Amino acid sequence: MVTALMIVESLGGWGVLRERLADYAAVIDRTRTGLPYAAIEALAKRYGLGIPLVARVVGLPARTHARRKKERQLSAAESDRLLRLARVAAEAESVLGAADKAGQWLQKPNRALRGAAPLDLLDTYLGAEEVVTVLGRIEHGVYS
Fold it and tell me: Which residues contact 6 (CB under 8 A, 6 or more apart)?
């Protein structure tokens, strides 16, 4: 199970968020007020994902992405989608043992996901849950 601390670290930790988020309630509250744009950059760097790829998964068109970068703040909805990505990425890192392995796994097509790359399913809650289910199977050695 992914802890709040693991999710916070995926988003850049104290260096990006500038506050101690020790539990899920604190992470939820911070997400509702909007995460800093730097959390996108931190997540992209940690998992070896390109910033444009993370922006696409979060649902930021190019012009909105440029505006959010300039404002240095994401909206609550964008923050929620980034949090979903961070949670799944942290789970993949926990299961696979390293952030770089998690980043590679998230980008590769997966037979258990009907040939889709895990990142391509993170635009919906159910898609993210399906990815987490596959990670659970991997963690427990169940053929996927």
Answer: 90, 93, 94
**Would you list the domain boundaries of the chain?**
4-139
Q: Is 92:102 a contact under the CB 8 Å cutoff?
A: yes
CA distance 108 to 126: 19
pLDDT tens-digit profile, the chain (144 residues): 899 999 999 999 999 998 888 899 999 999 999 999 999 999 999 999 999 999 999 999 999 999 999 999 999 999 999 999 999 999 999 999 999 999 999 999 999 999 999 999 999 999 999 999 999 999 998 865
Tell me the angle at which helices 76-96 and 24-33 cross, rounded to the nearest 10 degrees.
140
